[in-house]
Amino acid sequence: xxxxxxxxxxxxxxxxxxxxxxxxxxxxxxxxxxxxxxxxxxxxxxxxxx
Length: 50
What we know:
Elements: H1 3-19, H2 24-49
Helix pairs in contact: 1-2
């Protein structure tokens, strides 16, 4: 897994969340998953820098 892949996953989830205007709980869940992928990207980035 690379930082770019993690960010791509987050972006896809956020795009899907934007389409879920009528299903707010799902929109929130997708946003939470995107946040987790961003955190994974941060962790991977830290590992690459060290």
